[in-house]
Write a structure and sequence with these properties.
Length: 349
């Protein structure tokens, strides 16, 4: 099934970008939504001009995001695994639960600032945001559904017939428009209103002494990978987690086939990290304390372990005292964006 998804992705990859009916109508009834890049953010990777969010497109994307009909059991919507209160993660679950309680192998990722990401999922299997939802929709352990069946179900609902016709020039309920609407919803999900942001933009906030000390430590010990204002350099690295024999997740190698990518995973953004527990690709670490203990003394050596973790005295990891760990955690909590998780534009009800 996974293999099939990749073929679909490949086909879409060529079809998606240049069709004539890409044009999204912006009319008085369907005004354009302003996609604003926060002053402290880089330019988006998503080409917003090819799929500019409109009021109706966004409304449709949101409705689809919370729509159980996208899954074979009528229940497991995107929002089932991506819960707003926890920055759109499935925090009670270590690995995701799909239809019929089927278990996935990975921890659901937060959804925020997707417009600024180049590749998606823990191993970068999806190379465009418009294509990413094909994976959960068609995966047996996630939504276990096909586009033809979804389209049939949506065509029976007058509210969808209306919304698709208002949102897209060709008025069609088809897979391309489903994916575009989902992207319009997801690209608007920008999280840039944390205490850290307010400080970075000189909006009057200041770090406590502990947070300021944590920020200095973070810059010297963590920011080589969790870089810049997105807190990720978007590379794939091995941060020394032991291999879980139950899943034997190959990481980036699953996508590239290269031995040098074995057990490398995408460096995650640390925004809203206080809310997105449990941590790591398989959710094995429960708390931020556990994460810092892993970095200081939990690492396992392997040929692909990132060289920054190999110390000259042959020990592994990042040296940190307990006080330093507390300071780093205090800093990480300044990345929580309460307005984002409470923003009713993104809520189901
Ligand atoms: C069964 C739980 C589940 C459902 C349902 C689900 N997801 Fe996810 N989502 C995940 C998991 C787990 C990952 C990480 C996947 C991986 O690394 O292979 C993920 C990753 C993602 C990502 C990539 C995030 C990043 O930072 O790269 C996006 C975007 C996303 N999901 C959107 C959606 C959308 C849209 C839907 C509905 C069409 C959806 N998801 C349905 C569990 C789920
Ligand atoms: C060499 C690159 C690198 C460095 C340095 C690094 N990290 Fe990471 N970090 C990663 C990668 C890669 C992952 C994801 C690993 C996985 O899930 O397999 C990760 C995961 C995490 C997570 C879990 C995120 C989530 O969404 O589950 C946290 C929290 C974290 N790192 C914090 C830190 C802190 C704090 C430091 C400094 C003390 C640090 N990292 C240093 C690469 C790095």
């Amino acid at each position: 099934m996974k293999f099939l998804s990749y073929i679909v992705i490949f086909l879409f990859g060529t079809a998606c970008s240049s069709e004539k009916d890409d044009y999204v109508p912006v009319t008085l009834e369907n005004p354009k939504l302003e996609f604003t890049v926060p002053a402290n953010f880089p330019e988006p990777s998503y080409n917003v001009s090819l799929n500019p969010p409109t009021e109706k497109g966004f409304e449709l994307g949101k409705k689809l995001f919370y729509e159980g009909r996208l899954a074979s059991d009528g229940v497991v919507s995107c929002g089932f695994c991506h819960i707003q209160d926890f920055a759109f993660t499935h925090h009670t679950h270590i690995v995701s639960h799909g239809v019929d309680g089927a278990l996935g192998t990975r921890n659901a990722q937060p959804l925020h600032n997707m417009a600024f990401m180049k590749e998606f999922t823990w191993d970068g299997a999806a190379i465009h945001l418009d294509l990413q939802p094909i994976i959960p929709i068609t995966a047996e352990v996630e939504m276990n559904e096909s586009f033809s069946s979804i389209i049939k179900k949506l065509e029976e609902r007058p509210e969808y017939v209306k919304l698709f016709s208002e949102a897209f020039e060709n008025q069609k309920i088809n897979s391309e428009n489903i994916l575009k609407a989902l992207s319009q919803f997801m690209i608007m999900m920008v999280s840039a209103d944390s205490k850290y942001d307010k400080i970075e933009r000189n909006e009057g906030s200041v770090f406590t002494e502990q947070e300021a000390a944590g920020f200095e430590l973070f810059k010297s010990k963590c920011a080589s990978c969790h870089a810049g204002t997105l807190f990720t350099d978007q590379s794939y690295r091995n941060n020394g987690l032991s291999v879980d024999p139950q899943y034997n997740d190959l990481g980036r190698k699953r996508v590239t086939g290269l031995d040098e990518d074995l057990h490398k995973f995408k460096v995650p953004s640390l925004r809203n990290i206080e809310l997105t527990f449990p941590y790591m690709h398989d959710g094995r670490l429960k708390t931020l304390n556990d994460v810092l203990d892993h970095y200081s003394n939990g690492m396992v050596d392997s040929p692909t372990l990132d060289p920054v973790f190999k110390n000259t005295d042959t020990s592994l990891g990042i040296l940190m005292t307990d006080l330093e760990k507390e300071q780093i955690i205090a800093f990480l909590k300044t990345l929580t964006d309460d307005n984002f998780v409470a923003d009713s534009r993104f809520s189901e009800f």
